[in-house]
Amino acid sequence: MSHPVNGLDDVVHQRTRLGILAILNETTKADFSYLKNALELTDGNLSRHLTVLEDANLIEVQKGYEGKRPRTWVKITKLGKKALAYEVEALKTLVHRVERSR
Amino acid sequence: MSHPVNGLDDVVHQRTRLGILAILNETTKADFSYLKNALELTDGNLSRHLTVLEDANLIEVQKGYEGKRPRTWVKITKLGKKALAYEVEALKTLVHRVERSR
């Protein structure tokens, strides 16, 4: 059997992107500032990771206004939920394997 | 409470390096070819990740000969075991959180 890490997708597994998907999985949508604060990121860093996830069709980004204030909303897609669920299964297999070898 | 991904260390969390540490945690030492095959890597790719782990004092690399054949052995350090255990605890927290939100 192949090692559990071989099934991990770097797009999803990368620390910050995994955090973005995990947060979005808990909610209908989150705004840019919320994600930025929750994951302790700079604007540039968050933007960069959102682009990677959007290009992979794992999230949707909607830019709009709330009154005069620009606001960016982010939602997880169906594919994003599936990718996160797959990652979590692979992590569980890995955790189980590491704990067995202690 | 900070999001569980904020505690992850990229040196340990990166897919390939996580695999290297998980394998080394199961054994006294592993040779280069074994890791390369188990993790489906090229020589260059494995070397690069071993250097990152060695620079962080998470593994030890020993080059030697077996008969006339050059052989590279890799061992996890005490610090490497600690870092892996820490990563696994963070992953468990994350997995638990994602599963709770399904």
Salient structural properties:
homodimer, alpha+beta, three-stranded antiparallel beta sheet, 5 helices, 3 strands, 56% helix
Task: Give a short overview.
The structure is a homodimer of 102-residue chains. Chain A is α+β, with helices and mostly antiparallel strands and 102 residues long.
Report the principal-axis shape of chain A.
elongated
Query: Would you report the number of β strands of chain A?
Result: 3
Residue share in β-strands of chain A: 15-25%
Distance between the amino and carboxyl termini of chain A: 20 Å
Low-confidence stretches of chain A: none
Helix vs. strand class of chain A: alpha+beta
Give the domain tally of chain A: 1
Element pattern of chain A in H and E = HHEHHEEH
Mean pLDDT over all positions of chain A: 95
Query: In the CATH hierarchy, what is the superfamily of chain A?
Result: Winged helix-like DNA-binding domain superfamily/Winged helix DNA-binding domain
Instruction: Please state the oligomeric state of the protein chains shown.
Output: homodimer
Helix content of chain A: 55-70%
CATH architectural designation of chain A: Orthogonal Bundle
The CATH topology name of chain A reads Arc Repressor Mutant, subunit A
Profile the largest sheet of chain A: 3 strands, antiparallel
Spatial strand arrangement across the major sheet of chain A: 1-3-2
CATH class bucket of chain A: Mainly Alpha
Most extensive interface, chain pair and sizes: A-B, 31 and 30 residues
- Give Rg of chain A in angstroms: 15 Å
The number of helical segments of chain A is 5
